[in-house]
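Case study: Histone-lysine N-methyltransferase.
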Amino acid sequence: MICLQTSLKWTTDEGALMLYASFTIIPDLAPSDFHLFGPLKRHLGGMAFETEDDLISEVRNWFDNLDFDFFRVGINSLLSR
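Here is what the predicted structure looks like once written out:
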């Protein structure tokens, strides 16, 4: 199986921390990781954070507001090996 892994890089632009993603191919990344990080990446896309704590707070808020079905769908879509 081949999935994408996000490599995160912080840069400063006008006093704000910007999150940039680049992709590398990882041959054995778990499908559950792919299910989780794709939607998180889309949620964070285009956002700028003043501090790392602001980013952490936004990620925690995103997790807290996920519907139970998000995880059920992810688990049910896992492939058998």
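For the exam, be able to explain this: Strands lie at 3-13, 16-26, 48-49.
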